[in-house]
Amino acid sequence: MTTYSKGASYERELLALLKKKGYAAVRVAGSGRARMEQPDLIASNGVKLLGFECKYSASDYKTIHKDEVNSFVKFCREFHCTPVLAFRFPHTEWKFKILNDYVESNVSVKRTDELLVMTEII
Q1: Alpha-carbon span 72 to 66, nearest angstrom
Q2: Which residues are catalytic?
Q3: 3-state SS, residue 27
């Protein structure tokens, strides 16, 4: 399985979870290959509008370059949705980090970090 297809599979997994929680959600086609940064998923329950950048890591940590994060935040601001980084590590549930502003350095997350879980973001 290629890295792209593995990432797409996890994006579809999160999409299904959001739908089970009552959100209308879509996966943005080609999000990882587009010239302009855009979220992997967009979801809304009629009150909250969330943009998700999904990251899977086979190891115990994941780092996202600050330029990628800031492009994602910029898109979400223009779209008027809340930017959410979604992380999936082996044998764990989805974990989330809501971004309130642009970042000054790369975003690094460890599997053991205290991040938000699904019930805390929806």
Answers
A1: 10
A2: 31
A3: strand
